[in-house]
Amino acid sequence: xxxxxxxxxxxxxxAPLPTSVLEExxxxxxNYNDMGIGIAxxxxxxxxxxxxxxxxxxxxxxxxxxxEDYEILFLQGGGxxxxxxAVYHMVSIWVEKCxxxxxxxxxxxxxxxxxxxxVMEGLKLDYLVxxxxxxxxxxxxxxxxxxxxxxxxxxxxxxxxxxxGKIPAEDQWSLTxxxxxxxxxxxxxxxxxxxxxDGVEFPSFPASxxxxxxxxxxxxxxxxxxxxxxxxxxxxxxxxxxxxxxKNIGNTGITIIILRKxxxxxxxxxxxxxxxxxxxxxxxxxxxxxxxxxxxxxxYNTLPIFxxxxxxxxxxxLNNTYxxxxxxxxxxxxxxxxxxxxxxxDKYPNVYKVVPDKSVRSRMNICVRIHGADPEKxxxxxxxxxxxxxxxxxxxxxxxxxxxxxxxxxxxxAVEKLTEYLESYARKSANT
Length: 432
Ligand SMILES: Cc1ncc(COP(=O)(O)O)c(C=O)c1O
What we know:
Elements: E1 8-9, H1 19-30, H2 47-64, E2 70-75, H3 78-105, H4 108-122, E3 125-129, H5 132-145, E4 150-155, E5 188-192, E6 194-195, E7 200-201, E8 220-223, E9 240-244, E10 255-260, H6 273-278, H7 290-295, H8 305-322, H9 327-347, E11 352-354, E12 365-370, H10 375-387, E13 390-391, E14 402-405, H11 412-431
Parallel strand pairs: 1-13, 3-4, 3-5, 5-8, 8-9
Antiparallel strand pairs: 2-10, 6-7, 9-10, 11-12, 12-14
Bound molecules: pyridoxal-5'-phosphate.
Pyridoxal-5'-phosphate is lined by residues 13, 78-80, 133, 192, 196, 223, 225-226, 244.
């Protein structure tokens, strides 16, 4: 039976966690702060739990340099829960803005009729669909508000034989204009910064989503579930960033949201449930309601404090390791590890074919086919890897192949073992 030290694990999420954090976790699960009870047993409203929450927030703020005008929320429901939460919230803001504008212009009754018309004709949520997760998010939006309100500003499959793997040039995207006649742009523009299944990552923030002025703000919502805290991010460019913890941050159980405070009351007003109902628009469950969660310091309902603690220890560990460099320190290591892996893959083009285009290769999820996606060869590769204690390399069930997940807790020695295996498999294949 292999020990933890023997195994190199490249799972896509849940993913490896730093051993030092798990060792400490095993102690605090039994006895937290010499209280005689474990961290998973204490009340989420106790002073100890409050400190865990504050420390974890602080570690994230420090690591990513999050500006003061952003709120951090911890929720449950995973990244998938946020697919829905984003729609509920951003639609509600859009409708309220629209209502206010109409009501200042005309009397109430006429305004309600016009509002219905404006919503029917003008409510748009823009999605950049570059992989399976942004596709799912857009499908959830269509389920909630109707496909007629979802503008697929980009479907990356169209340019790539029906498959994900490229991000077409921005001049080919069809974003809803921000300066429309009625004065209201899209309720949001949504994208997934790193597509875990397809191995596609945006190289940088898309230029066409940059705000040109205060009024022309596109309200960008980004799913960073699988590349959170792996590179420097200019938080100010985003209205919302969210991600499940179970890849780069911690164990499964919490989702982290970084949200511009101006999108919360009192700065942003929200449509009333009655109004949304009368317009046939959905009202989300209270546990996904960002204003409610914010008002209650993420403690509206029982927050899994142990999960928050793990995330905090992981992030504090990065702060301690990289000191003043902060997230740039991790960015350098992530780049180095992914360069090592792609370097070997590119050396043997007859054996390995990286799935996505070079311009959008993910540093986090490296998707590759072996010998032209021959199922027997891919099985042989995975079996051999497994015998060498290189685990978690099977591609997502929807696409197959091989996927190396290169998250923060994968150490360089694990990547070295993997590259040695990639080399030896390729050489052996060339001789057979
Ligand atoms: C990029 C991305 N977004 C969203 C999700 C969904 O997350 P969850 O399973 O936590 O709902 C995943 C899951 O792997 C993901 O990789």
